[in-house]
Amino acid sequence: MRRIKRKPAAAYHHGDLRQALVDAAAAVVAKDGVDALKVSALAERLGVTDGAPFRHFESRLALLVAVAEEGAGRMVERMDAAAAGIEDPLEVQRARGVAYVRFAVEEPGHFRVLTRAEVIAASPRLQEMSAAFETTLDAVLGRRHKGASSPELVFRSAGMLAAQALTYGLARMITDGLLGEITASQAERLAYEITGVLGVGLGAER
User: 195 and 129, same structural domain?
Assistant: First the structure.
């Protein structure tokens, strides 16, 4: 009987298989979307047994969380680096938004996973990173403030929420192919121009 040769799981030492699974999962999602990700297919792709991935991840969701957390770390690094040295609050927000969109275009696998609600819900780390967004939303809706927030706080928070919605929407439109073939540099230019228009509105006298 002919035996199928597979790379033994032991060949991936010092956590190599874990990272290989994260990288392969991100690549699949980037090409075919989250729903196309199958752990068994990843195992076959990496030449290991079907059970080998589950020595590192207890479930498909756990693997997705690992992809998302890795992507979130990279995204934050890029956004922080883009805003470093900028003093004007509007320009800081603009720089971070542009970096966010460019990250989504350059690493669509990570971006698509880290924006999934079920993945965020399964990750305390991602929930902690989302705390600032929740605070902004609370201010706009008047939650946790014993009634309505001050007009100034609502306006400022609404502006931040608008910027987040704008950059997220643009990133999704590009990664979902709704704008056709867009390069990373073109995405960056689009994000820069669009966030500039938003900045004009936020800087207007009230």
Answer: yes
pLDDT digits (tens, 9 = 90+) for 50-64: 999 999 999 999 999
Domain containing residue 13: CATH number = 1.10.10
DSSP secondary structure string for all residues of the chain: -PPPP---GGGS-TTHHHHHHHHHHHHHHHHH-GGG--HHHHHHHHT--TTGGGGT-SSHHHHHHHHHHHHHHHHHHHHHHHHTT--SHHHHHHHHHHHHHHHHHH-HHHHHHHT-HHHHHT-HHHHHHTHHHHHHHHHHHTTTTTSPPPHHHHHHHHHHHHHHHHHHHHHHHHHTTTT-S--HHHHHHHHHHHHHHHHHHHTS--
Residue 179 has pLDDT above 50, yes or no: yes
pTM: 0.80
* % of the chain with per-residue pLDDT over 70: 75
The domain containing residue 50 runs over which residues? 9-58
Query: Which sign, positive or negative, has the C-alpha torsion 24, 176, 78, 184?
Result: positive
